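BUG-1476 | component: ligand-complex export | severity: low

The export step for iron/sulfur cluster jobs runs without errors, but we want the raw record kept on the ticket for reference. Input record follows.
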Amino acid sequence: MAECHPVGFQWVMEAKARGATLIHVDPRFTRTSALADVHVSLRAGSDIAFLGGLVNHVLQNEADFREYVLAYTNAAAIVREDFRDTEDLDGVFSGLDTEHRTYDPATWQYEGADVPSVAGEGDEEFEERTQAGATIREAARVEAHGSGGAGVSGDIHTDETLRHPRCVYQILKRHFARYTPDMVEQVCGVPPDTFRQVCELVTANSGRERTTAFAYAVGWTQHTVGVQYIRTASILQSLLGNIGRPGGGILALRGHASIQGSTDIPTLFNLLPGYIPMPHAHADQTLESFIEAEGTVKGYWGNMRSYLVSLLKAWWGESATADNDYAFDYLPRLTGDHSTNETVLAQMEGTCKGYFLMGENPAVGSTNAKMQRLGMAALDWLVVRDFALIESATWWKDGPEIETRELRTEENGTEVFFLPAASHTEKSGSFTNTQRLLQWHREAVRPQGEARSDLWFTYHLGRRIREKLAGSTDDMDRPILDLTWDYPVHGDILEPDAEAVLVEINGHDARGAPLSAYTELKGDGSTTCGCWIYCGVYADGVNQADRRKPHTEQDWVAKEWGWAWPANRRILYNRASADPDGRPWSERKALLWWDPEHRRWSGPDVPDFQPDKPPDFRPAEGARGPDALRGTDAFVMQADGKAWLYAPAGVVDGPLPAHYEPHESPFTNPLYSQQSNPIRQVVKHPVNRYQPPGSPVFPYVTTTYRLTEHHTAGGMSRWVPYLAELMPEFFCEVSPELAAERGLEHLGWATIVSARTAVEARVLVTERMTPLTVQGRTLHQIGLPYHWGPNGYSTGDAANELAPVVLDPNTHIQESKAMACDIRPGRRPRGPALLEFVRDYRRRAGITDETGMEM
Amino acid sequence: MGRPRDALTGVAAGRRRRRGRGEQPVVPDAQFTSYYGRPVVKRPVWRTLDIAGYLFVGGLAGSSSVLAAGAHFTDRPTLARAGKITAAGGVVVAAVLLVHDLGRPERFVNMLRVFKPTSPMSVGSWLLSGYGPAAGLAAVSAVTGRLPRLGTLATVGAGLIGPTITTYTAALISDTAVPAWHGGHREMPYVFAGSGASAAGGLGLLAAPVWENTPARRMALMGGIVELAAYRLMEHRLGMVAEPYRTGTAGWLVRASEALTVAGLAGAVLGRRNRLVCAVSGGALVSASAFMRFGIFKAGVASAEDPKYTVGPQRERLNARDGSGIGRV
Amino acid sequence: MSQVSPGPPRMGFFTDTSVCIGCKACEVACKEWNAIPEDGLNLTGMSLDNTEKLDANTWRHVAFIEQRKPLAFQEPGVRHTGPVPDLATPPAEAPMTPMTPGEPGDLRWLMASDVCKHCTHAACLDVCPTGALFRTEFDTVVVQADVCNGCGYCIPACPYGVIDQRKEDGRAWKCTMCYDRIGDGLQPACAKACPTESIQYGPLDELRERASERLDTMHAAGVTDARLYGDDPNDGVGGTGAFFLLLDEPEVYGLPPDPVATTRDLPAMWRHAALAAAGLVGAGVIACLRSS
Ligand SMILES: Nc1nc2c(c(=O)[nH]1)N[C@H]1C(S)=C(S)[C@@H](COP(=O)(O)OP(=O)(O)OC[C@H]3O[C@@H](n4cnc5c(=O)[nH]c(N)nc54)[C@H](O)[C@@H]3O)O[C@H]1N2
Ligand SMILES: Nc1nc2c(c(=O)[nH]1)N[C@H]1C(S)=C(S)[C@@H](COP(=O)(O)OP(=O)(O)OC[C@H]3O[C@@H](n4cnc5c(=O)[nH]c(N)nc54)[C@H](O)[C@@H]3O)O[C@H]1N2
Ligand code: SF4
Ligand code: SF4
Ligand code: SF4
Ligand code: SF4
Ligand code: SF4
Ligand SMILES: [Mo]
């Protein structure tokens, strides 16, 4: 966190100044470790075992916050009789469809609940035709569940004594029983002493009076089991009562500036603004059936119709009427998994012919960068909008494949357009940060030369397309021609007014007055709203994101700095900061309480609850939406109002986390005979060959990461001398022991090899890298910062040449944090010799096109 | 400014220490540490040829003016003329060297913006701007025979300012954090004066006929002996910081200088009646002086480049002051 | 009613290295604000420090020191057994990032942002022949670029090796304590950028008080090797305007343990130089005496 979120880290330092203990769990001793009280070095890719060990510690010692667990989690819920755990099936859950590499989650449900129709109205025939079967449906739905909770409905059976063998609590206890300190040592390489210390620190710091927070970023997500990492932390935090309370939570430290904003108003293929799922071709024919399938009966997702209709009204205005289902048919439809890597495959197959790269440098930043380049080389046209001539714009003349003669410039058929982009200082707009906080920024200088903002580009591109289509009678053109594309522009470059976009996002009522909360949204077409969770950012006609009242001039929640979605609420699920009766669990940690006199929830934060719903509220029979939640159902976005210790739906690779080895691991799984996540997404392709598990040819674990001094694929840092000079070259970090074992010299060169290719890096030998003892064997890990590429001022090989495309099935995130590899002294071969060098490795490891494809 | 974030790291963890170390051990600093062997102070950025050359030429010129004045008034015209010409030539060369090091001539003008007694370079610049015209005038008058009265006045002036030109440069280099220079700040002026005198004497031996060269020989003798003695004293006082004077380029320059001085003095005394021996001895003394200045210069640079010469003595001083070194330093 | 308004108080830095996270934001902010040229690409092998030192083009420099020493009760989570190279080993000769020898399994990583000390007795300023270096109303030491003639005298004069010559223009450059910001009531760029308030800027008196409290807290908490550096007005430079809280000996960070402004000895030097010069005159007189 000190490395990648140094500004955010100031608050960690502030917490430390107030006595907080800081634990850092990371394979490497980093700048964060330097400031931590405890650093736990573990094997990359083993955190589920580590966290699972913590969960087991809590359960075995009954160290959970029992009142909280009973009131706010689904610990008491009873699960269907036909559910089978990894304990019963040696590492997999019931419902595994080995043919399609998916799970059918039906058996995971609560007893008495209806099976959620995650897929909507299925269209078997269509799915057969598109071959992808259930994966498509699953792939495209889970992000929505992540935010909104999967649907559960019906009468859930519970056992408040937590003794029922099929209650969640007991299932949990059995499931995690094998995650003992000894197993943690076997899997993670963490000595029992250190592990026990962490257990003690975490449990001692949780409960009524104290809370523990977890902060994570991509060290936890970039795994084939990334979502399950977070699930394990969620279980732990829910058991310890650390969610919805000040100083608690699981904080996803996000990436790019406003990457949070770009999931809220998404750049993802499967989501509409506000985490509304993208409809599927055939499956979602009408607005009604779509809402039926995607909305939930209880909780805030019960109002999905209001959110969606308001969105359609914002986009298509007058053209969206009750008669045409509010132009629901204008929405594009998914026909499959259109995530980045699928798109690249489609490019190589020739079905995807054009590509916009706006603010992305996949030729360096995406795993198996060669695949990305080969995809682009098969395009008809490519548009790159960036500050500098990044690798993704120049691969056709100087990319690694030109050197190896796999591609020839003269033969390249892709027409490449490079358009200079304006930077954030050259345009106005908002950033949405990790805390869901929107902060407005204004243009400080005019864009230089031809550079234009992305807003300018998108608006004027749309305008020109609409001009070209004007007068068309083809129905296909209606969605574009009917768009509300009427943003005011200013200045000589005709820059669209960013604030006008914010106004549209906020939405307005029938009279055109800005709305102030999403609770005002209507499903009858009388309101508009570009993103329901952002509704209120322009309340009272004021840009709430532009507020800058210093924290010294307001209370500690500082509600008047910027604006947080939803409803300017700073801590989500904050109803859980009070006990079931509405009294704060402790005075120290008071955030929200029921004020019986005024019959309202009161406190410094905005309640994440219906403000006047008393703690003893019981819903009426047949109530829907938020009204169906009880006065103690703190987790209002969940259909049952509970924090899920066990996920009966919504997570495609299992209701509970289980430790699986990384797809490429030098070890076999000591916990189950199931080696890796059975439904991880694999890609079978000649340039994406996998290594066999446990191969002695690739005996080391490599992890990739960031340096404070550079940014991601380097487009914003490798070209900047002030940053480049701070970290001038691509390097690898190794321990002195590994250096001795492989004859690596400090500041000399090393070649790191995987089944895909080899890269060269300067060697930094440092004791910050430590050997671990895993399953009785010494394991060396190699650290590779992934910022470099051949272009720019500071150059070097890209770490992503090494990494495979293998993905988490929920989020399609690549496994770039744990791979197996070899390292040897010296520079890598050049030109075609490199290909032969790697082929030799593949031969030695016995790699075929089937390697790694097993479940 | 906000409140400071007084975070404490490592205090909350309660690491189970082997051997029950609760308190941190006060590790005795047995050996010398540094930041990756990097220098602590900056080495002088002056170019060796320019500034070591300047030290030598200035010393030679200044001392020559003294000898020239003496010769002038004791009626040794050749010796006097040689001294005056050397001084004037020396000033010109010195100025060229200075300007070369500064890069542009007009930069020298900035030297005379202020007068700062705390800056030997400022003082030197003012001295030089007084000395230069005097030495020049003295030489011109001596060579042309014109303006004899003014020439005499100039000779006196140059003879009086000359010694300061010879010795101020000792203060100049000693007034730096360069360990091998500053450590010798007491002896350095005598080394410089001695070396200058011996060089001036040497030049006199080289230029003057045998019947006129007695003052030169005496000057060389007095200078050479003072130089050798003062240098030895300095080396002794420097302790471990004398090392750079004994090693590397500086080491052989200094040794060569000493040898040449001894040889030159011996030659000057023993071969006093032989014009050639006198000339050769004189040449040896002049080069000895040059070698000494270059040696001192190089030793200074070497001492600045190795952190042990900065840290070592300071650490010793500190430890002598308060045993522990922990706490406030 | 004419009353001389007292000047602003002496302003300074307290750099508390115990909270530095080594992000180098200070380095970059300084370069940005002062439009300093880049310093070249050079992977040094000195931990994560690739700028190496303070010089004409680096006015803030963050040092990184890897040590086999405990940081209070910190659990570093590493397991090494072998011997380690000495910290004084230049990285070119070291088989790994040089460490301080110590107990295997101990590891701490010190980071510290160094800067011009703005000495009370500033040798650089004293020796500057042109007056380019001057003391501001904030009691800081600043070079006027248009006056500096590149004589280079200040460079070896500085006991901390701070000020340096820029090859391109021959002139001397160093931290100005953002003279062009603090006059407008702004914080220096480096302090402003520092996320953890490792760099604290303010009136020196206040900073000294705060630092001494901080030191007491740290000692009480068991961080016994914390010490202040440069806060003592009786030290060889009369105390510094930028002082530090360090966790090890100054020399470990590349700082001189007992710096002295050499101009302190200047009177003695002048005395000796004058004596020597007088001696030279005397020698001249003696040399020219006619033996009777
Ligand atoms: N300076 C800087 N800041 C950035 C960025 C940048 O490029 N430069 N990028 C931004 C972006 S886009 C993002 S997504 C965030 C990412 O922020 P982070 O997630 O903090 O970034 P990383 O350095 O990729 O990974 C974090 C750490 O995970 C560790 N790690 C690797 N494998 C494992 C594992 O299996 N388990 C555990 N526990 N740890 C593991 C690595 O050693 C590394 O130290 O940073 C953002 N901030
Ligand atoms: N091995 C490995 N691979 C990884 C990761 C890892 O940890 N390890 N991390 C992954 C993560 S979390 C991420 S986020 C990705 C990042 O990977 P990419 O997104 O591919 O890389 P960036 O360098 O961030 O690309 C952003 C580009 O946008 C440009 N840019 C900046 N602002 C603007 C703007 O306003 N408009 C336009 N048009 N362009 C702009 C920048 O110059 C830059 O070139 O890498 C992923 N890849
Ligand atoms: S670069 Fe921006 S987002 Fe990242 S830490 Fe710095 S201020 Fe925060
Ligand atoms: S640290 Fe050096 S440059 Fe800075 S004021 Fe002191 S003597 Fe001058
Ligand atoms: S280099 Fe410039 S600042 Fe330094 S002493 Fe010379 S004139 Fe003064
Ligand atoms: S005070 Fe200003 S000039 Fe000095 S280091 Fe900080 S940013 Fe640079
Ligand atoms: S900005 Fe602050 S925390 Fe970052 S390196 Fe500089 S002093 Fe350390
Ligand atoms: Mo990211």
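Assignee comment: Attached the raw record above. Confidence is low (pLDDT under 50) at residues 18-25, 325-329 of chain B.
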